[in-house]
Amino acid sequence: MGRKTVYNYKLVTNEVWEQVNPDNKDLMEDFMVYLGSIGRSQKTITQYKNDLKIFFCWYVKNGKNKFFVDITKREIMRYQGFLIGTCKMSSSRVRRLRSSLSSLSGYVENMLDEDFPDFRNIVNKIEAPAQNPVRDKLVFKIDKCLKVCDELMKQDAQASALFAVACFSGLRKSELTRLKYEDFTTNKNMALDGGFYVTSKIKIKGKGDRLEKKFVWVKCDKWLQNWIKYREDNGINSEYLFCYQKDEEWHQLDKSQMDGFVYKIEKFFDGNFYFHACRHFFASFLTESGIPLRICQFLLSHKSSEVTQLYIDIDEEDNLNGFEDFFTGKANKAEKGKSLNDL
After folding, report:
1. Is the N or C terminus of the chain more exposed, i.e. has fewer CB atoms within 10 Å?
2. Contacts of 193 by beta carbon, 8 Å cutoff, 6+ apart
3. E strands, 179-269, in order
């Protein structure tokens, strides 16, 4: 099965939230306004709010519902222990909840220092839990990619196109849902020697509402065009490339719909699939095909090549074979004059 939440402990209820210290509620709301003023996206602000509500509801009983500025290191340790021991949260989830507390503490220390001159951010003085993977890393090669695309196409035209576009663009899951249909049909724009579709600017990961054009490799065309034809044949009308029907209307995919596609795709990966693995596949396939690291970095929209290198999953034996081809001249002969379209 795909990755699921590993805890079901009910932390926030209306009843408990009503009991939260009004000063803490006001502080949290002021912090939300501050986050908006420095360009944080609404999604990020909502996430901070949800994470802080978890803490303040816990704080009602376990911190005697004191004002946040009176928090102690001992209470932070108890909260962290509660998240790990009672709630069975992953280390990544606990780290994110800690981060929201640290950010709020930083806001109080730096922005409200006139009111609370003695307050100090003590969250980071408590050691965070070690980062542990919550799922096995999924690495697959081009043969597996093509086989899954073809098998999916027999069952679900949209699923096969979605998987193919993910593999041959390296787009994040949320970015895939924002692709516009017209960028692959009426307003089609090609670049990089005609080898890539260029999309309209879409919102990407990062601070604020960052917008960027994205590049989708035409190697996905077999499955992409099959989906486009299916849409035309069945009168599917949506501005988004990938969509779902509800109440006789077509809508942009949301998280639950994307999770549904994970369940369809993971059947071909022995129950271990997540869309970010396609981003790793894209980086690795480009590298194995001889594409320079700086081009991979550009296509993945990474700020540094060091980040891009973390996405390249090539084992020792593959690297050795590649080096042998280089030193014997095979790689130079094979790749001479090739463009991305030849790969």
Report:
1. N
2. 339, 340, 341
3. 190-191, 196-198, 202-203, 211-212, 215-217, 243-246, 249-252
Question: Can you tell me the distance from the alpha carbon of 205 to that of 211, in angstroms, rounded to the nearest whole number?
Answer: 9
DSSP state of 240: B
DSSP code of residue 180: B
Q: Could you report the per-residue pLDDT of 57-67, keeping only the tens digit for each?
A: 999 989 889 99
Task: Please give the biggest Cα pair distance in the chain.
Answer: 73
pTM over 0.70: no
Q: How far is CA 183 from the centre of its chain?
A: 22
Q: What distance in Å separates the CA atoms of residue 192 and residue 202, rounded to the nearest whole number?
A: 19
Q: Which CATH class is domain 14-125?
A: mainly alpha
239-263 pLDDT per residue, tens = 999 999 998 899 999 888 999 999 9
For domain 142-335, give its CATH number from 2.30.42.10, 2.40.50.100, 1.10.1760.20, 1.10.443.10.
1.10.443.10
